[in-house]
Design a protein that fits this description.
By secondary structure, the chain is mainly alpha-helical. It has one helix and no strands. The N and C termini lie far apart (56 Å).
Length: 37
């Protein structure tokens, strides 16, 4: 069994989830700022 299926795949998923979380935070902050005005 290749190692990429476990280690590499896990790192990729973690990276994707982190990126999605950052984008969600940015969008929420942007919406709040616009509503604050």
């Amino acid at each position: 069994m290749p190692d990429w299926s476990t280690k590499r795949g896990h790192n990729l998923t973690l990276r994707v989830t982190k990126r999605h979380a950052a984008e969600a935070k940015l969008t929420v902050r942007y919406r709040r700022a616009r509503i604050g005005r």
